UniProtKB/TrEMBL annotation:
This is Alpha-glucosidase. It comes from the Bacteria. It holds the Pfam family Alpha-amylase. Belongs to the glycosyl hydrolase 13 family. InterPro entries: GH, GH13_cat_dom, Glyco_hydro_b, O16G_dom_2. Residues 14-434 form the Glycosyl hydrolase family 13 catalytic domain. Residues 218-238 are annotated as: Disordered.
Length: 569
């Protein structure tokens, strides 16, 4: 039998460096700050650090707009500090995964500058340049080459006055899309990746990697998407998500970059819009593409018809049906990654839990238990391990993220009510995840000695790492126990998954089995008690392996947000 890969037992921790820890007092987190906090990560027990981008960047999208792939932005430190970070992690038995953002560069990257310089530039074809729509004057409303909307509001095409042509940017206009159809582009990306691996990093989290293959005709034409009601745009997804050459490109990348290197590496593709069927292909080891992908289904269930800024309540039945399908779909082939939070999502305890003082600790622990006991590799986003919550924004001026800022501007311009716009931003903004990590109860939560670039959550006096470090009942201690359990118990890492009580409106329950061994997980996903009654007879008499409420009751009554991991008698 083949030995299971190391990452089936691993837990990954994401650092968003701008908001993690500031070592030089400029109010922006940096590599020095990450290095100072490495013991926090080893105490927590995580195996891998995924570092969001630290490369030179104009910071239009907080570093996801890269102007040099092979250096570190002075804002964050230096290449020497990056080397020191790798060394510090390796010395503690952890690995470093870098963010790889190659669907697009910054418009200030020399490749784009050269591409833009002239239609005859040898790099013109490294990006997506297209003339205005046939029969229309460049710059006229609706003359964009296709009807796609950008992720950050407005059309996905920007007119370059000098040449009269448009370039494609699925994200901000300062993030032009690279043309992966051009083999020179792909080889330049692979060479850059090899350079980082040779330097000692242990893998990549690949930003929107399933968008790199667009559906393009042999003559170079791209297609409009079907109209999106209530907007002037068409749906770009069928034209850009998991395009015709995506598996070819990832297999090529694997051959060119990863083949022949040792098995200590980790690759995870960020793949919005991916289906279970696509994910099986991406993560089937026999196909050699990537180890796992981030899917977005469970974090879209509370989006209304108007998208993420039009939220609706989450239905637990939908959540269970979704996770259940992903667990089943990748049971025999492929692998799941498991997450609630990252730098793009509102805080899980506020979104899926209950962040009122009464239930915050318990719901944060319950959600963590639920996630970490699934089959797959769990990802913990900075601050999640202490139950950090959404920020109580009271004004749009407090928001910095380009996605929220652009969306709010457009909504207000279209006549939306200001209070409603603020409420949507408060609920859904990515800045909820980007407020500084709360290290202690001191000024600016110990994040910086200067003025933080984004305000610290006022709840930091009560909710911080220092207050939780030695408290066995804390959210932090609970995460430590969950991580240890995954390391030590093969049922957690490798056991099969069976959903139980799929129709129960408040209980999330499942079984994990490996050989003769079995774990039963029962979670009360609600702020009122619930009695399991006759629903799961195995609960009575089962031994508690790990729970949110100890000492546990061995009856069938679950307290609000109580989660139990049980070993049936
Ligand atoms: O995100 C891609 C993505 O699909 C979304 O999560 C998106 O950012 C947005 O939140 C949609 O509502 C990745 C990065 O994680 C994100 O921070 C970047 O802004 C984006 O790509 C562009 O690089």
């Amino acid at each position: 039998t083949v030995q299971a890969p190391w990452w089936t037992r691993a837990v990954v921790y994401q650092v968003y460096p701008r908001s993690f820890a500031d070592s030089d007092g400029d109010g922006i987190g940096d590599l020095g700050g990450v290095i100072e906090k490495l013991d926090h990560l080893s105490d927590l027990g995580v195996d891998v650090l995924w570092l969001s981008p630290v490369y030179p960047s104009p910071q239009d999208d907080n570093g996801y707009d890269i102007s040099d792939y092979q250096d570190v932005d002075p804002l964050f430190g230096s290449l020497e500090q990056l080397d020191a970070l790798v060394e510090g992690l390796h010395a503690r038995g952890m690995r470093l995964v870098m963010d790889l953002v190659v669907n697009h560069t910054s418009d200030e990257h020399p490749w784009f500058q050269e591409s833009r310089s002239s239609p005859d530039s040898p790099k013109r074809d490294w990006y997506w340049w297209r003339p205005a729509r046939e029969g229309m004057a460049a710059g006229a409303p609706g003359a964009e080459p296709t009807n796609w909307e950008s992720f950050f509001s407005g059309p996905a095409w920007e007119l370059d006055e000098a040449s009269g042509e448009y370039y494609l940017h699925l994200f901000s206009r300062k993030q032009p899309d690279l043309n992966w159809e051009n083999p020179e582009v792909r080889q330049a990306v692979y060479a850059m990746m090899r350079w980082w691996l040779d330097r000692g990093v242990d893998g990549f989290r690949m930003d929107v990697i399933n968008l790199v293959s667009k559906r393009v005709e042999p003559d170079g034409s791209l297609h409009d998407g079907p109209p999106v009601p209530g907007t002037p745009y068409g749906d770009r997804s069928p034209e850009t998500v998991c395009g015709p050459r995506i598996h070819e490109f990832l297999a090529e990348m694997h051959r060119e970059v990863f083949a022949g290197r040792d098995g200590g590496l980790l690759t995870v593709g960020e793949t919005p819009g991916v289906t279970v069927e696509d994910a099986r292909l991406f993560t089937d080891p026999a196909r050699a593409e990537v180890d796992m992908v981030f899917q977005f289904e469970h974090v879209s269930l509370d989006h209304g018809p108007g998208g993420k800024f039009d939220p609706r309540p989450l239905s637990l039945l939908d959540l269970k049906a979704s996770f259940g399908r992903w667990q089943a779909g990748l049971a025999d082939v492929g692998w799941n990654s498991l997450y609630w939070d990252n730098h793009d999502q509102p805080r899980a305890v506020s979104r899926f839990g209950d962040d009122s003082p009464e239930h915050r600790r318990d719901s944060a622990c319950c959600l963590a238990t639920l996630l970490h006991l699934h089959r797959g590799t769990p990802y913990v986003y900075q601050g999640e391990e202490i139950g950090m919550a959404n920020y109580p924004f009271t004004s749009l001026d407090q928001v910095a993220d380009i996605e929220s800022v652009n969306w709010a501007r457009e909504a207000l311009a279209a006549g939306a009510d200001e209070a409603a716009v603020l409420a949507a931003v408060r609920h859904s903004s990515r800045d909820n995840a980007r407020t500084p990590v709360q290290w202690d109860a001191g000024p600016h939560a110990g994040f910086t000695s200067g003025t933080p670039w984004l305000a610290v959550n006022p709840d930091s006096t009560g909710w911080n790492v220092a207050a939780q470090r030695d408290d066995e009942r804390s959210v932090l201690a609970h995460h430590r126990r969950l991580i240890t359990l995954r390391h030590e118990d093969p049922v957690v890492s490798l056991g099969s998954f069976t959903m139980l009580l799929p129709e129960h409106e408040q209980v999330y329950a499942f079984r994990r089995s490996l050989g003769d061994d079995e774990l039963l997980v029962v979670c009360n996903v609600g702020s009122t008690p619930v009695d399991l009654g006759e629903g799961l007879p195995e609960v009575a008499g089962a031994a508690l392996v790990l729970g949110t409420h100890e000492p546990a009751d061995d009856g069938t009554l679950l307290r609000p947000w109580e989660a139990r991991v049980l070993r049936p008698a």
